[in-house]
Amino acid sequence: MQYVGLDIIEVCRIEEAVSRWNDRFLRRVYTARELRYCRGRATSLAGRFAAKEAVAKALGSGIGKVAFKDIEIISGPKKQPRIVLHGGALARYRKLGLSHLAISLSHCRDYAAASVVGGGE
């Protein structure tokens, strides 16, 4: 079986959340490793936000049943995005019998988007 998730977000929404809530927002949504990688760049933060939403959709749970920080988006050896699951997201992944999740990210000045496809063995 295939599982798919897609999300798009306006970069300005992330900028507004950071401006309004600052560290409270950042610590609730992003892991320390993600924050180090993004270095406050709104487009990178938005890309990871969209990615987390897309992963949660692919897992059939949405954010809420799975916490933002249960889904971590890291940079692979060639800078390609990779998904690392923790806690509830990892449990959901295992329950669905998934063996892989593939992700694609894209962003421009105004928007960030992510697509996730998962499958079993």
H/E topology pattern: EHHHHEEHEE
* Low-confidence segments: none
- What's the number of structural domains? 1
* CATH level-3 fold name: Ribosomal Protein L22, Chain A
What is the averaged pLDDT score? 95
Helix content: 40-55%
Q: How large is the radius of gyration?
A: 14 Å
CATH class: Alpha Beta
Tally of strands: 5
Count up the helices: 5
Q: Please give the alpha-carbon distance between the first and last residues.
A: 9 Å
Specify the overall morphology.
globular
Strand content: 25-35%
What are the salient characteristics of this protein?
globular; 121 residues; 42% helix; alpha+beta; two-stranded antiparallel sheet; three-stranded antiparallel sheet; Ribosomal Protein L22, Chain A
